[in-house]
Amino acid sequence: MGKILALFYVSLICLGLSVSPVDAYGRRQLRFNSNGRFKILQVSDMHYGFGKETQCSNVTPEELPYCSDLNTTSFIQRTIASEKPDLIVFSGDNVNGMCESGDAAKTMNMAFAPAIEARIPWVAILGNHDQESDMTRETMMKHIVKMPYTLSEVNPFGSGIFPIDGFGNYNLQIEGPFGSPLFFKSLLNVYMLDGGDYVKLDGFAFNYDWVKSSQVNWYEHASKWLEMEYKRWPFPQKSTAPGLVYVHIPVPEFKRFTEPRQMTGVRQEQTCSAPINSGLFTKLVERGEVKGIFSGHDHVNDFCATLNGVNLCYAGGSGYHGYGKTGWARRVRVVEAQLEKTKYGRWGAVDKITTWKRLDDKNHSLIDTQLLWSKNTTLDTNYRFKCNKIKQH
């Protein structure tokens, strides 16, 4: 029966017939475009408040009277127009909380409006400030999943039977382009994780939370299942499809990068991560699938650095209401995966993954383009680390 179905799928591809672009739950299926590319725009730390009534932080005196949340909206709209992303990831602290968002649903509607108006698929995870309003983390995610064009999930299927900590743990499968033999395979796996807010255990007051063991276990099982599917007939692949992880609070391993020579981009403040290392990064290294883990939280850090084959990347702060650094432009991160061409001229597996940043400056500058991973290249990850203290800015 499996062979018959496979031949049926292949015949659809050869005949150029389209298959419904939605999955079993009615959501739009993400896939690489006809040029063999898939582009993700990461927007972190918008800290959206009251819209035009919200005052900006860390801008020049000349900018202050005319600056509000609308500057954040304009920046995102500007970037969408320039980059034309296939997916937008809002990676936490989307709304400011801090007792400012009295109507969190209304604030989220304003914050995510650029993606909705552009009709681009988007997803969101929560940061440590989002729930500091009139909604819990659970009710926030339940509101988000009902919004137009979102592919967000409250939690993965089956989490009612096998409980998982947090709200907003799920994965996205980016399938091959129309006409490709790999049309029905996920060529890029994107994992969203809820990093929590603050620790609620005795002895850990005022500390940031961490990804729990139940979430790490879920990632491992999901990763193994996707690998099995990737290597299964028809068109079985020999390697593992690359993966990306988005989580708001950086894992403790980000702290290891202290010197400019170790990174592309800048560090201008401490890495504010959890006091406990829950083993997420170790699991990513063991699985060998994930090529990058992308975080926000520390607004004036925007570097990427590599450790044990995994890139650890900050997005930099995008929101004008959140803290920043005067004279240092707000920014977002873009990640693009490119497929290889097979010897038959068809699109094959992912060949390389690159990243860059867009700034909200006069020229809408594109900076720090770098190769994160290449199928046929081994990147140098043998850094010697020094334990230097970094001052908080």
UniProtKB/TrEMBL annotation:
Residues 1-24 form the signal peptide. The keyword Kinase does not apply. One of its GO terms (molecular function) is hydrolase activity, acting on ester bonds. Residues 38-300 form the Calcineurin-like phosphoesterase domain. The keyword Transcription regulation does not apply. Keywords: Signal. Gene3D superfamilies: 3.60.21.10. This is Calcineurin-like phosphoesterase domain-containing protein. It comes from Brassica campestris (Field mustard).
